[in-house]
Amino acid sequence: MLDVLVENLVQIKQEFAKKYAGNAHIQEVLPKNQSSKFPIGEKYLKQLHDFMQTNPIYFNSYEQQILDVDCIVYEGDINQYWLNSIKHGSSCQPFYPTWVMSAFIMASVAQELGYLELVDIGSGDGRIAYCGNIIGLNSHSVEIDDVLVELQNKLCESTHQNFNPLCHDALEFDYSSLNLKKPVFFIGGLAQMGGDVLATSIIDKINSITNLKNETGVVFAGTHTKRQLSGNLENGGWSSLIEKHDLKVIDTVSLPTIWTFDQDVETPYIFTEFK
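RE: above sequence
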């Protein structure tokens, strides 16, 4: 099912991006109904729409058929939150989210791999943690920016889903306090934009918790974009860190994100575990 979702979501995004004539700062698409192209339970689909409809970063929505799929297009503006998020010295990347449907797929991949808890580091508006929560993972959402955490708390209330927002510097947080058993950590930020510093700190903290390392997965957001500062793009730019910390890649899923909307490549999410 997940392979079908990934393939069709990417096709929908590419087709939508070609023809989008609006001028919103951000835009993304969700299927309106369950279908053979999007075999996702109606309950989950409604919960994804609930997140979008109650999230103040979106100011408009409309129906559009894309590749014979009835969709809802959501338009929004994250400038207010983006500007606030860059004021933190230890922040590794400003708020620039993945698509909600991409977040749902990532959480579902983590669940299929057998993880019980989801810890989203640098979680923005909490969408990955939210998606983990609705499918039954025990989610924790760690975000340094108090304005974004306030937004997350409002979303918890409006959607009736508590994905445990935590306003902390991820570099300083005590992860042993979460009593994790078999967690997957999502690392916010590209390696080339300071994400490697964040990831190294999280990995060191995982290693410091007795018996946790062998039960833990780490997911990195990568890039396929060949720009001057991209460096080595193997494993989305994370190959050096993966090798250094003795990780192995167990899956890679390329999905639409806000920052690749105008590109013909998607964002690779690299799922790893310790050897």
